[in-house]
Amino acid sequence: MSAIGGSNREAELANLSPWTTPAPAIAPEEYRARLQKAQHLTAEIGADALVVGAGQSLRYFAGVPWGATERMIAMILPVKGDPIIVCPFFELGSLQADLKIEAETSLWQEEESPAALVADALSACGGKTVAVDPDLSFGMADSVAKAAPSLDYVSGAPVIDGCRQIKSPAELALMQQAKSMTLEVHKRTARIMREGITATEVRRFIEDAHRALGAAGNSFCIVQFGRSTAFPHGLPGESVLEPGDLVLVDTGCQVGGYHSDITRTYAFGTPSDEQRRIWDLEKEAQAAAFAAAKPGVAAEDVDAAARQVVEKAGLGPDYRLPGVPHRTGHGIGLSIHEAAYLVRGDRTELKPGMCFSNEPMIVVPDRFGVRLEDHFHVTDTGAEWFTPPQPAIDLPVA
Length: 398
Prior knowledge:
Elements: H1 9-14, H2 28-44, E1 49-53, H3 56-62, E2 74-78, E3 84-88, H4 92-98, E4 104-108, H5 114-125, E5 129-132, H6 138-147, E6 152-155, H7 157-164, H8 169-191, H9 199-212, E7 220-225, E8 246-252, E9 254-255, E10 258-259, E11 262-267, H10 273-292, H11 299-312, E12 329-331, E13 338-342, E14 355-358, E15 362-364, E16 368-370, E17 374-378, E18 383-385
Parallel strand pairs: 1-5, 3-4, 5-6
Antiparallel strand pairs: 1-2, 2-3, 7-8, 8-11, 9-10, 12-13, 14-17, 15-16, 17-18
Organism: Pacificimonas flava
Keywords: Hydrolase, Metal-binding, Metalloprotease, Protease
GO molecular function, one term: aminopeptidase activity
């Protein structure tokens, strides 16, 4: 069977079934270890307690998979003692069902001030300085500061990033499953390509394929044909596939809250010499970034390695086009984009357990673009791919 085209949606979906080797969920002892590490890091930055709002960090520390809304939900973690969850009273049953840690609860009714409860909990912790989740909205953080004006507030980013950047073996396993599932979806997506297919049809197939493998559908999906590929996140309106187009598909799913995010770019029909040259250069830049990723190397140096390849070929420099318009990569985990970032100015030293995308996209303005995106995790000696990179412009998956 051809790697690109030659099949259809019904045939490809019929051959998919739920993942047979699911990764285990995060264990209770790992949640306890996360809290202990957070307490240690909070003390290191001179704070007496950490405030974490609803979102991916609350999921990380407490297992509660709730997004932020206008209602305050927060965890107060003192450097000594048990965490306290501030939550609307009517959500208590749902909280207890999701909560993966032992914690006190402080509940508020609709007409009451949750900021006052947070302030009371912080006062009970003792001390003077509070580290605040940088993802907590300004409005919520401001309301807490006004309810407890005698306290000093500092960014909790060193604590949260210090915990979440380094993935455990259990986290790596969940990420591996998500990425392996998405790679399988990419393989089958390429097979349904045909002249006249629309980007909407392809997105619907990708959604159904992820679901067939056991995910809750796509966490996101970008499908671009032809000229649209010259714009990193596409153009408005419908796209229709024509012979000679490049196809760019960027998609992912979640497993246990952990993300995949893989991009493939390939030719529908015979690629032009220029398309092939840019594709080969993109692959070389991606390989250079991977080779540069080692413990102790600064994140920005990985970005520089990819750019050196592109600039040596006469493109760029910096963000000029034709060339690479955006950073080489981003951290990934419970958030699809999270610290650290493979970009000039980010001096974060790579450490074993850190996970990154590798996607130094090359754009030829208003004509086409090539993005090859796979993810790696840093090991003791270098880096290891979660998924093998695309081998050729006419072969999306090895």
